[in-house]
Design brief:
The chain is built from 3 helices and 2 strands, in the order H-E-H-E-H. By secondary structure, it is of the alpha+beta class. It has one domain. It has a two-stranded parallel sheet. Strand 1, helix 2 and strand 2 form a beta-alpha-beta unit. The chain starts with a helix and ends with a helix. The mean pLDDT is about 75.
C-alpha cells in the first residue's frame, strides 16, 4: 500500500510540476514591422535598403525582428483601407 501511495504521489507531483517547467522554456515573441507602400514595383530597391538599415542597427531578420511587406500596387484607395 505504501508503494502505491508513493507512486501516486510522484505521479501527481510530476503532473503539477510539468506545466511549470514548460513555461520557463517559452520563446520570446519576435517584434514584427509592417512596411506598407503604394507601389513596391516602382521602387524595388527600397525593401532591400530598409532591410540593410535594420541590419546596420543590429537586427537579424527572422531572429530578432520580422518584416512584412505590403503593396497597394499603385491603387491609393487600397492603402487607405483599415
Amino acid at each position: 500500500m505504501t508503494t502505491r501511495r508513493a507512486f501516486v504521489g510522484m505521479l501527481t507531483g510530476g503532473l503539477l510540476a510539468g506545466p511549470l517547467g514548460g513555461e520557463a522554456q517559452q520563446v520570446a515573441k519576435v517584434p514584427r514591422i509592417g512596411y506598407v507602400s503604394t507601389n513596391l514595383a516602382a521602387s524595388p530597391q527600397l525593401p532591400e535598403a530598409f532591410r540593410q538599415g535594420l541590419r546596420d542597427l543590429g537586427y537579424v531578420e527572422g531572429k530578432t525582428i520580422e518584416v512584412e511587406f505590403r503593396s497597394a500596387d499603385g491603387k491609393l484607395e487600397r492603402s487607405l483601407r483599415s
